[in-house]
């Protein structure tokens, strides 16, 4: 690789306004990436919490279904009225 000597007179810089815009863009992008990371973590925690709640409710439903079957047999229930819609033969 060849060493290149740069004459200070040849060095050019962008305007102060352009440099500020570049820096502002970098700050924005850093904040946006951080926010996306935080959202992703929050999403995963909320997802895990909801899945846990679903598992608990499914267990509660299974227990209720078992209690109803013990009391009434193998039936179907109108969810709006609670009325036994169909009672299958045992």
Structure commentary:
By secondary structure, this protein is mainly alpha-helical. The protein has one domain. It has one helix and two strands, in the order αββ. A hairpin with a 6-residue loop joins strand 1 and strand 2. The protein is rod-shaped. The termini are far apart.
Main traits of this protein?
1 helix, 90 residues, two-stranded antiparallel ribbon, 8% strand, 63% helix, mainly alpha
Would you spell out the secondary-structure blueprint of this structure?
Layout lengths: L15 H57 L2 E3 L6 E4 L3
Antiparallel strand pairs: 1-2
Mean pLDDT: 91
Oligomer: single chain
Give helix and strand order, one letter per element, not per position: HEE
Tell me the count of domains.
1
Compact overview of the structure:
With 90 residues, this protein is mainly alpha-helical. The protein has one domain.
